[in-house]
Design a protein that fits this description.
The chain has 14 helices and twelve strands. It is of the alpha+beta class and 433 residues long. The protein has two domains: 234 residues, Ribosomal Protein S5, domain 2; 179 residues, 2-Layer Sandwich (Alpha-Beta Plaits). The longest helix has 25 residues. The radius of gyration is 22 Å and the shape is globular. The chain starts with a helix and ends in a 5-residue tail after the last strand.
């Protein structure tokens, strides 16, 4: 009996359902639905790579939501984020050569990376191949082992959903290399840092570290990036559902084309303010230093940069206040701070729409309609990078059905997704099986 057949048989057993409940929760039909999903993946792997003698291993890396700290991480600030119950998963076997081959559902031809050449390729930028190559380079540079493998990958973290599909893929590849060739001993922080390296220097996107760190660690986490090479990560024990609120992400659509310059400009302008004050990033600057020199700084870098810096200071402090509120089980204060963060992003950070496309303001429209529907209950804010994409909403249970129906009617079928916080970060789903 092949390893594929053994694994397919195991997925039908109660033991598999128990394990899947740990990863995805125990809501009705969830374990069965996930077992079927993994079964399809394993069957696809057998079709693509055959029934070889090697054990088939399954890995998962979650998407994430940004709960607090909008555009604070790239200037070494604080964030509050959570891994969610949507993920990218892989069925994997070792390869007989020094090549990584990945069949990713929906992407046509497989990605093939020859590990004998790990230099960045200009023509690979903004591709999955660039991410794989960059992660392998980061592994090698840090002294970790790499090797070839054959993988089939599928994801319910949709591209453009605002749940960081790219970071989930990066963490998945790094987690696979960790377990196949390094005994699973690489710390989550290193997994995240290597994913960020690949995204920054091979993919070509100047992201912070929040997305990768949240996916690698799992759960509801607060992260302080004051020392970005060794960020402080702390898990929080808090369940929004038990307090009467659903976590809903609304994808408002809009074009994501050519948004990278806008994301980059946020970090660049914040750092320009820091430079004007003799520092490298805003975390090295005090709020008083900025306000005392605001006339000089606005002359040097412009008003928008100053406004974005003011947002950084306010949102960075808000994260600490949110963490304290959750620790005290003070939901009312926490939700007020979420709303304040949303208003700050709208007014100061100015990342609700691309300036060259003023007719496309789906984020602002979604927030305005949400505010009308919640009528002072719950909270809402722009989610992630902004300019197009998603908002994050804390919706009282009794309003969730009507709220999601309204958002789906306004922005399209399945625009609104109700999520749960996933306690487990990236890892092997059935270790020892």
């Amino acid at each position: 009996m092949s390893s594929h057949e053994q694994l397919l048989d195991y997925l039908k057993r109660a033991a598999a359902a128990q394990q899947l409940t740990r990863w995805y929760g125990n809501e009705r039909q969830t374990p069965g639905r996930q077992a079927a999903r993994y079964g399809t993946l394993v069957a696809g792997h057998r079709k693509q790579f055959g029934e070889g003698k090697d054990k088939v291993r399954l890995f998962s890396a979650p998407g994430r939501v940004e709960v607090g700290g909008n555009h604070t991480d790239h200037n070494h600030g604080r964030v509050l984020a959570a891994a969610v119950n949507l993920d990218v998963i892989a069925a994997v076997t070792p390869a007989t050569d020094y090549v990584i081959t990945v069949h990713s559902e929906g992407y046509g031809d497989p990605f093939r990376i020859d590990l004998s050449d790990l230099d960045a390729k200009e023509d690979e930028k903004e591709t999955s191949s660039a991410l794989i190559r960059g992660i392998c380079r980061a592994f090698r540079d840090r002294g970790y082992k790499i090797g070839g493998f054959n993988a089939c990958v599928t994801s319910d973290v949709a591209v453009g959903s605002g749940l960081s599909s790219s970071a989930a893929f990066e963490v998945l590849i790094a987690t696979t290399l960790n377990h196949l060739f390094n005994g699973g001993d690489i710390p989550a922080k290193d997994i995240a840092l290597m994913g960020q390296y690949a995204e920054n220097y091979y993919f070509g996107k100047p992201s912070g570290l929040m997305d990768q760190m949240t996916g690698a660690v799992g759960g509801l986490v607060t992260i302080d990036f004051q020392d970005p090479t060794n960020p402080l990560v702390r898990k929080l024990d808090f369940d929004f559902a038990s307090c009467g609120y659903d976590l809903v992400v609304v994808n408002t659509g809009g074009s994501h084309a050519d948004l990278t310059p806008h994301y980059s400009a946020v970090a660049t302008e914040m750092k320009a303010v820091a430079t004007a004050l003799g520092k490298n990033v805003l975390r090295e600057v005090s709020f008083k230093e900025l306000t005392d020199s605001i006339k000089k700084v606005r002359r040097e870098v412009g008003d928008r940069a100053v406004l974005r810096a003011l947002h950084f200071f306010a949102d960075n402090e808000r994260v600490a206040q949110q963490v304290n509120a959750l620790a005290a089980r003070d939901v009312e204060t926490f939700l007020r701070l979420v709303n304040e963060s949303g208003q700050s992003s709208w007014m100061l950070l100015q990342n609700l729409y691309a300036p060259e496309r003023p007719a496309e303001q789906g984020l602002a429209l979604a927030l305005a309609v949400t505010d009308q529907m919640l009528k002072g209950k719950g909270a809402c804010r722009v989610h992630g990078g902004g300019f197009a994409g998603t908002i994050l909403v804390f919706v009282p249970h009794e309003l969730t059905a009507s709220y999601t129906d309204r958002m789906n009617d306004l922005f399209g079928d399945r625009a609104a997704q109700t999520l749960r916080v996933r306690s487990l970060g990236a890892g092997e789903v059935f270790p020892g099986c």
